[in-house]
Amino acid sequence: MAAWSKLQEKLTPRNSAVAAGVVVLWWIARTRWQTNGKKQLNRGKTTFNLSEAIEQERREREKTADKGRDKAAVDGVFFRSSHTFVKTPMYCVSLDFDPVTLPSIHFKMAAWSKLQEKLTPRNSAVAAGVVVLWWIARTRWQTNGKKQLNRGKTTFNLSEAIEQERREREKTADKGRDKAAVDGVFFRRLCRILKIVIPSWVSAEAGYMLLVAVALVCRTYCDVWMIQNGTSIESAIIGRDMQLFKKHLFKFIYAMPLISLMNNVLKFGLNEVKLRFRTRLTDYLYDKYLRGFTYYKMSNLDNRISNADQLLTQDVDKLCESIGELYSNLSKPVLDIFLYAFKLAGAIGIQGPGYMLAYLAVSGLILTRLRRPIGKMTVIEQKYEGEFRYVNSRLITNSEEVAFYQGNKREKVTIEGTFKKLVDHLRTLINFRFNMGLIDNIVAKYIATLVGYLVVSRPFLDLANPRHLHTSHSERLEDYYKSGRMLVRMAEAIGRVILAGREMTRLAGFTSRVTDLMKVLDDLNKGQYQRTMVSSQQNAEGEKPSVPLIPGSGRVCYQDYIIKFESVPLVTPNGDVLIKEMNFEVKSGINVLVCGPNGCGKSSLFRILGELWPLFGGTMTKPDKTKLFYIPQRPYMTLGTLRDQVIYPDTKQDMIDKGVIDKDLDYFMEKLQMARLFYHKPQFAILDECTSAVSVDVEGFMYQHCREVGISLFTVSHRKSLWKHHEYYLHMDGRGSYEYKPITPETTEFGS
Question: Do 250 and 229 contact (CB within 8 A), yes or no?
C-alpha cells in the first residue's frame, strides 16, 4: 500500500501524458518489429504447419455448420472471428505485490523519479520534435534508397519495360494539363455532370436538394436556439432561479422531437440526393455505353479506357457520394458563417467576423494549393483498384483453363503483384494525407480557434469600449459566453469549409475519370476511336499500301438479299493488313464455305461484315444488322429462362409481337445456337464451327431446314461432310491472298 501511495503521488497529469506517449511509441516500434520479423519468417517457410491446418479445418467446419443462416450477426461466431483477428497478448496491472519483488520495484521507482525530473515540458517538446524529424528523414532515406537501387539495375525486365512504355504513353497523352486539380477545368467538368444529374429546376433531384437546403437552414437556427437556451439554463442554475430553470428546461424538452426530426430529414434528403444522382448518371452512361456496338469498341478498338466496369460502377458511386457530401459539407458551414457573422456583428462589431472571413480566404487558398496532388492520387488509386478487380474477375472467368495448366502459382504472382502496386500507392497516399493532416489541423482548427480568441476578446479587454462600461461581472460573463460560443461555432464552420477543400480535391479525381469516360463514349458513338498503332501498315509481302489506311474511310450500303465486297481491304483495327483488297458477291440462296489456316482472317472478315470493325476503304453492300445473324462455336448464355436463351436477344414481348408461342419453340430445341437461328430467321447467317458437336444426320437436317426457310449461310468449318451443302468456297491462304470459286465435282475438298 505504501508503494501504491508513492505511485499515486507521482502520477500527475503531465507524467501520465508522457508515459502514454512512451507507451505508444513502444507499441509502434514493437508492432513494426513483429511485422518485419513475420515477413522474414514467411519468406523462409518451407515446412508444413500443423496448427494452420487444424485452424483451416475448424473454419471449414464452421462454414458448413453456418450454411443456410444469416452469418452477419453479433453472436458467438462473431466473437470467435474477432478472437481470430485479435491475437495480441493482453497486459494488465496487478495490485498484488510479491514481497520478493519489492526491492526491484523501489529501484525502478527511483529510476522513474530521476526520469521525471528530466522530463520538463520543454524537453518533452524537443524530444517529440526530434522523433518526428527522425521519422521524416528515415522515410525520405528509404524512398531515395529504393530510387537509387532502381537506377542501378542493369538486367532487362520485360514486364517493367512494358509498364514503363505504358506510363510514357499516358504521360504523353496527359502532357500539358493536370488531370485532377481544383481549377477551371474541374468546375467545367463538374457543371457538365450536374446538368446530367439535375436535368431541370422542377425535377425531383432539385426538389430534394431544396429539401436539404431547408433542413440545413432549420438545423442552423436550431443550433442558435440551443446556444441561447443552453446559456439561459446555465444562467438560471448559477443564479439559483428555479422558475427560470424549469421554464427553459421544458422548452428544451418540447424542442427535442422537432430537432431530432430536422436531423433525420437532413439525412434522408442527402441519401435520396446521392441515390438519385447515381441513378441519373448511371442511366446516362449506360445509354451511351450500350448504344450500338460501343461496349465492344471501347474494349477492342479504343485503348483510352481500361476497366470500364470500374468506372461505370464504383467510380460513379463514389462521385455521386462525394457530390452529396460536398453539398452538405459546404452549404451548412457557409450558412453558419453568414448567420453567426450577422449575430456577432451586433455583439462585438463587424471587424471580428471580417477578420475571420479574411482568414478563411487566405487559409483556403494556401491549403487548396497544397492539396493538389490528392486529385491525381485519387485517379491513380481508382485505376489500380480497377486493375486489381480485373485480374480477380479474369481468374474466375478462366478458372478451368488455369486449373488444367496448373497455373495457380503464376496467377498468384500476377494478383499479388497487382495488389502490391495498389498497396504501395495507398501507402504513399496515407503518408501524404498524414503530412497534410498536420497542416490541416493546425490551420483549420487551432489557428482558427486562436484567431477566434483574439477577435472575441477585443471588446472585453478594451477598457474604453462603451459596451461593457456599466455591466456587472455576471452580465459580462453571460455576454462572453454567448458570443464565445457563437464565435467557436463560426470558427468550426470556417474549419469545415477549409477541410471541405480536401473533399473537393478528391472529387476532382472522380470527376476527371468520369468525364474522360463520357468523352470516349461520345467519340465512339460518332465513329471516332483512338488506338496506339504498333503496326507499320505493311501488307503480307512487306510493301506499304499506296493509300494510307484511315479507319472509317470505307462506305457501307444497305441492301436486302445480297452481300458484296468491292475493293475492301481486310485490315485489323491495329493497322495490320491481312488482305490488300477483296472483291466478291454472295446473293441470297447461296451458301459459302469459308476455310483457311488459323490467323488467315476468317474471323476478321466476319467482324467487318458485322460492322464491329471499321472499314479502311472500298464499298461493302449488305442487309441491315438485324437481318444478319452470327452463331459462335461457344454459345452465349444470357440470364433468364430457357425461353430467354432461345429468343435472345428478343424479349418475351418481342416474341409475342412476332406471333410465336412457347409451343413453337419446341421444334427448335435440337441445339441452342441453331434454335436461335431458326427463331430469328435472318437473311444471312454466319456459322463459326457451331456444327462440330452434332452428328452428320442432324447436321444435314439443319442445313436443309435453313434452305427451306430462306437462310443463306457462311460456314467456317474444317469438316469435309459440309462441302455438299455449299455452292461456293472462300479460301484464304494466310499470306495475303484468297480465292472465291464455285464448288464443282472437280473441286478438291480439304479438311477432316
Answer: no
**320 and 379 within one domain:** yes
**Whole-model pTM above 0.70?**
no
620 and 627 in contact (C-beta within 8 Å)?
no
Domain of 326: which CATH number? 1.20.1560.10
Q: Which of 120, 126, 112 is nearest to 14 (CA)?
A: 120
Residue 170 lies in a domain: no
pLDDT per position as a tens digit, 94-127: 334 344 444 444 444 555 565 556 556 566 666 6
Q: Looking at this protein, which amino acid is placed at residue 476? A: R
Q: Do 608 and 557 contact (CB within 8 A), yes or no?
A: no
Amino acid at 205: E
Residue 32 CA neighbour count, 13 Å, CB half: 6
In 345-470, where do the E strands start and end? none
Rounded CA-CA distance 62/564 in Å is 65
Cα–Cα distance for residue pair 717/452, rounded to 1 Å: 83
Sign (positive or negative) of CA dihedral 671, 673, 678, 683: negative
Element (H, E) at 620: strand 619-622
Which regions of 84-146 does DSSP assign to beta strands (E)? Answer: none
Per-residue DSSP letter, 651: -
| Residue 710, phi-psi category: left (phi > 0), alpha (psi -120 to 50), beta (remainder) | left
> What's the 3-state SS for 527-550?
CCCCCCCCCCCCCCCCCCCCCCCC
At residue 577, φ and ψ (nearest 5 deg) are: -90, 115
Q: Domain tally for the chain?
A: 2
User: Does residue 465 sit in the same domain as residue 573?
Assistant: no
As a whole number of angstroms, the distance between CA 295 and CA 56 comes to: 42
**Quick one: CA dihedral 527, 530, 531, 534, positive or negative?**
positive
Residue from 550, 573, 527 nearest 292 by CA: 527
Q: Three cell numbers at 117? A: 525530473
**Dist. CA 602–CA 579, nearest whole Å:** 11
Q: Read off the C-alpha cell for 177.
A: 494539363
Which residues fall within 8 angstroms of residue 65, CB to CB, at 6 or more apart? none
The residue range of the domain holding 519 is: 180-198+276-526
Helix (H, G, I), strand (E, B) or coil at 582: strand
Number of residues that this document lists for the chain: 752
| Residue 285 to residue 521: CA distance in whole angstroms | 8
Rg (CA), the chain: 37
**Residue 737 resides in a domain:** yes
Instruction: Tell me the residue type at 270.
Output: L
382 and 459, same domain (yes or no): yes
pLDDT digits (tens, 9 = 90+) for 581-620: 899 999 988 999 998 888 788 888 888 888 888 888 899 9
Helix (H), strand (E) at residue 717: none
The predicted model gives 702-710 an average pLDDT of 86
